[in-house]
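User: Predict the complex with zinc ion.
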Amino acid sequence: MSKYLIAPSILTADFGKITDEVQAADAAGPLIWHLDVMDGHFVPPFSFGTQIIKAVADATDNLVEVHAMIAHPTEHFDAFIESGASRIIFHYEAAMEAPKLGGPGLGETVLRAKEAGNEVGIAINPGTSITEIEELLPEINQVTVMLIRPGWGGQQMNPELLEKVTRLREISDKSNLSLNIEVDGGVKSHNAKLCIDAGANILVVGSAVFNAESTPQESLTEIRKSLN
Ligand code: DX5
Ligand code: ZN
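Assistant: Here is the predicted structure with zinc ion placed in the model:
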């Protein structure tokens, strides 16, 4: 068993042949699918909704996680799970703002994500410190540390943010939490090892997997080689 998993993000994949894209990547080795849902509010762009989640889930036997970059996370948890996702990652920052919009607070958001599905992760933006979520760590399965400002693929990561990954891994080990620590944004073959060495065990990789230069299989193989 490998100590890490790659989680392809399909933002730059060809949605017109999404089944082929998913199966091509699946053929290259173990992975999980990271689906970036954006609502045009929490982050400026729109991406996709439940139809694409369902298309990916129907095409793969691998775990599907939804990275919900949306202002009203709890309103959509059930729809994500019904579409075939089994891990929901919501943003700490969205949950903190939600009560002002009539939604539940942070603790209740965790509970509702658990009720809706199997696993729950919290994503934190570059400006959010881990002390803000520390109390909740025993209640969740995963922390997704954003290495970029969320909303767009193809950005460069800020490697200084990997300090948060190292600190989270220390907390997880010390308290036997077995947390998944995922990094998201700008991960490529030249910096993937840096992320693993910092303590991450899931690497979201978008534009370095789906791009015009190489096939998903070739790209995934190159990233895995860089980790050997
Ligand atoms: C950005 C998304 C990421 C991103 C990954 O808001 O959460 O998952 O698309 O793409 P790359 O690897 O190109 O940064
Ligand atoms: Zn993401």
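The two ends are 13 Å apart (CA to CA).
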